[in-house]
């Protein structure tokens, strides 16, 4: 009797999953995989589908109430305008990219910004510490990873001094990325007066549905005058050699000007999501400060709460609109089919496509999966260089005139599941600086050639294919 009951229950659950996969699945290959998983793995397969496979952009029943709250709040705080001003752009590709981002996120292009490229953790933390010391009104921090160590201890000490000066401090952290953050550290921050909140915390009744959606943004805002964003987390891995990967390398941005407010809007939305506190109606948090900078930029915020896969579309527009060159610096290169084909088409069209990637990463699955794409890319003429050190930078620039620096990797997780933030820089001067840093790193790296790469062992090729199959779960 129990056998028939369980069998019937499995059939009902499978039919439900099959219906949702059939009507709301995006990619046929991925949909077929989920159908097989839910069919041949009773109960566990359906549970995995609910956690990792549900298309929450389409299936309203499974839209998290927190995500709905975020969407509703964003709608209330957005001040719509009929048209995006692109008259100050020099090229058609700049106009097209900016219009795409505006259409999907309502983010306008901010002029007259002063942008400083921070090339590694040392430069980033020195600039961040200096900015924290200068705070007079408030400090807002948001990081995927807050990790115990020297850097965090120094930040806490600075924050304690600032609280004595009545500076308001608010911190957001991701509950998965900062899983090892100690309770006593959290309590210490709260005791000194910091408003500390986790993003998508483990709550009974909702964690199964929110487990797969992480906030991967890295943001620091000081008095709305200085802003930081990019790929650097709060971790000692950027200053000490704790693992065989050595000291992590990363790219970050310091911004002064109207662009700071655009980044801050993302933080304020996330803060409301985490705390139910609305700070967007207070002038202190929404005012902008002019600078003498000449950089135009656009902030690209993305996540499951947007109707479009914003950052994937951003990267595709970069690749498709490039006329001379495409350069990518990224730690986790596990592209979607559309991104992969776009790179191959660009290279076959005569555009110089160069990928600068780490030889090994902090995830063996990610490393093997990344290698599985090399053969087809090399056949199309893409140049691939592997660095001996570990670069955590997330950078793409085209034609030496438009660059993107942010938190987004080239993988399904960043495109579909994570909350991410990039900054598009419409500035040939800072892009030239990024190009110089890119070339210096590339000249020290090892170029992969097709003939040599094809000689790798059967074991290596098998591991690559297996890890590629698991890559959506990274």
Task: Kindly describe this structure.
This protein has 474 residues and is of the alpha+beta class. The protein has 3 domains: 2-53; 67-81 and 111-295, Endonuclease Chain A (Endonuclease, Chain A), CATH 3.30.870.10; 310-473, 2-Layer Sandwich (Endonuclease, Chain A). The chain is built from 19 helices and 15 strands. It has a 15-stranded mixed β-sheet with strand order 4-3-2-5-6-7-1-8-14-13-12-9-10-11-15, sandwiched between helices. β3 (168-174), α8 and β4 (195-199) form a beta-alpha-beta unit. The protein is globular, with a radius of gyration of 23 Å. The protein starts with a helix and ends with a helix. Residues 59-63 have low confidence and may be disordered.
List the helices and strands and how they pair.
Blueprint: H1 2-24, H2 28-40, H3 44-53, H4 65-77, H5 92-105, E1 110-118, H6 121-134, E2 138-143, H7 150-164, E3 168-174, H8 183-191, E4 195-199, H9 207-210, E5 219-222, E6 226-230, E7 252-256, H10 259-275, H11 283-286, E8 295-302, H12 310-321, E9 325-329, H13 337-348, E10 352-358, H14 364-371, H15 374-380, E11 383-387, E12 395-398, E13 402-406, H16 412-417, E14 420-426, H17 428-443, E15 446-448, H18 450-453, H19 458-470
Parallel strand pairs: 2-3, 3-4, 9-10, 10-11
Antiparallel strand pairs: 1-7, 1-8, 2-5, 5-6, 6-7, 8-14, 9-12, 11-15, 12-13, 13-14
Helix pairs in contact: 1-2, 2-3, 4-10, 5-12, 6-7, 12-13, 14-19
């Amino acid at each position: 009797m129990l056998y028939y009951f369980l069998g019937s229950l499995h059939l009902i659950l499978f039919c439900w999953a099959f219906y949702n996969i059939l009507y709301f699945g995006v990619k046929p290959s991925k949909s077929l995989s989920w159908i097989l998983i839910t069919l041949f793995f009773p109960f566990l397969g359906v549970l995995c589908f609910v956690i990792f496979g549900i298309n929450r952009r389409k299936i309203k029943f499974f839209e998290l109430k927190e995500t709905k709250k975020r969407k509703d709040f964003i709608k209330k705080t957005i001040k719509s305008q009929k048209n995006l001003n692109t008259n100050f752009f020099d090229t058609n590709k700049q106009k097209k990219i900016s219009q795409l981002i505006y259409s999907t996120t309502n983010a306008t292009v901010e002029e007259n910004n002063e942008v400083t490229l921070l090339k590694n953790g040392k430069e980033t933390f020195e600039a961040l510490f200096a900015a924290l010391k200068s705070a007079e009104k408030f400090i807002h921090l948001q990081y995927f990873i807050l990790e115990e160590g020297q850097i965090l201890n120094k930040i806490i000490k600075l924050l304690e001094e600032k609280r004595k000066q009545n500076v308001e401090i608010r911190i957001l952290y991701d509950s998965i990325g900062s899983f090892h953050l100690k309770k006593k550290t959290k309590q210490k921050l709260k005791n000194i007066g910091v408003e500390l909140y986790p993003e998508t915390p483990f709550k009974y009744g909702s964690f199964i549905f929110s487990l797969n959606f992480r906030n991967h943004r890295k943001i620091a805002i000081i008095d709305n005058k200085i802003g930081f964003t990019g790929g650097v987390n709060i971790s000692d891995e950027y200053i000490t050699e704790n693992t065989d990967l050595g000291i992590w390398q990363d790219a970050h941005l310091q911004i002064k000007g109207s662009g700071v407010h655009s980044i801050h809007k993302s933080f304020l939305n996330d803060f409301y999501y985490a705390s139910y506190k609305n700070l967007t109606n207070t002038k202190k948090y929404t005012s902008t400060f002019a600078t003498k900078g000449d950089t135009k930029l656009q902030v690209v915020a993305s996540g499951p709460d947007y109707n479009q896969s914003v950052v994937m579309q951003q990267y595709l527009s970069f690749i498709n609109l490039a006329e001379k060159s495409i350069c990518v610096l990224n730690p986790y290169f596990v592209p979607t089919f559309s991104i992969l084909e776009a790179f191959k088409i660009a290279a076959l069209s005569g555009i110089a496509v160069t990928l600068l990637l780490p030889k090994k990463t902090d995830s063996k699955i990610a490393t093997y999966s990344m290698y599985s794409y090399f053969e087809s890319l090399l056949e199309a003429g893409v140049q691939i260089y592997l660095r001996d050190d570990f670069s955590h930078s997330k950078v793409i620039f085209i034609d030496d005139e438009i660059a993107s620096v942010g938190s987004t990797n080239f993988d399904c997780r960043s495109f579909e599941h994570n909350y991410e933030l990039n900054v598009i820089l419409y500035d040939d001067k800072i892009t030239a600086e990024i190009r110089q840093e890119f070339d210096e790193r590339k000249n020290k790296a090892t170029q992969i050639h097709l003939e040599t790469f094809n000689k790798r062992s059967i074991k290596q090729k098998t591991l690559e294919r297996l890890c590629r199959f698991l890559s959506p779960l990274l």
